[in-house]
Design a protein that fits this description.
The protein is an alpha+beta fold. It has a single domain, classed as 3-Layer(aba) Sandwich (Aminopeptidase), CATH 3.40.630.30. It contains 5 helices and 7 strands. The strands form 2 sheets. It has a 4-stranded antiparallel beta sheet, sandwiched between helices. A 3-stranded antiparallel beta sheet has the order 5-7-6. The N terminus is likely disordered.
Length: 168
């Protein structure tokens, strides 16, 4: 879609001042990738405000690509999980997701995580192809508990794993 083609994408820590912009990016990306393939009950819970609240809770674990006034994407890690990875529509196909993923993997490896994992919505073929090309292996399906404003929401997802090299 026009926009971003820069192999020197800089990754930085998220700032509290950009939570609104990041929440909008996440909301838009979630609607694009998940709204048509996930249960209606979950779609109703995934509001812009819910993404903002989750970003605020996990802000210390969020790294961003692009300028503060126009973020291109972000990656959030949680425990041994590459928890969230979203890229704006205009930055897709420009290598931003790969740079964010590499940064997330490095952060997990620095913590001593040997095997990282991520959840992929069943049916999100575009993401699954990207994970496979990035060295992640689909190891099956599992039920995870998503955090929502109404409490835990059980969802079956594809589980991907990747062995991380020390110091990667």
């Amino acid at each position: 879609m026009g926009g971003v083609r820069d192999a020197t994408v800089q990754i930085r820590h998220a700032a509290i001042t950009e939570v609104d912009a990041l929440a909008q990016l996440w909301f838009d990306g979630w609607q694009d990738a998940h709204a048509a393939i996930l249960p209606e009950a979950l779609r109703r819970l995934r509001t812009l405000e819910s993404f903002k609240e989750r970003l605020l809770r996990g802000l210390a674990e969020v790294r961003v690509a692009g300028p503060a006034d126009a973020p291109l994407g972000f990656c959030m890690v949680k425990g041994d999980e590459l928890y969230q990875l979203f890229v704006s529509a205009q930055a897709r196909g420009a290598g931003v997701a790969a740079v964010l993923m590499t940064d997330g993997e490095a952060r997990l490896a620095e913590r001593g995580v040997n095997t990282a994992w991520l959840a992929c919505a069943i049916g999100n073929e575009r993401a699954a192809r990207f994970y496979g090309k990035s060295g992640w292996h689909h190891v099956g399906s599992q039920i995870i508990q998503l955090e929502t404003t109404a409490g835990a929401f059980d969802l079956e997802v594809w589980r991907f794993q990747k062995r991380l090299l020390p110091g990667a």
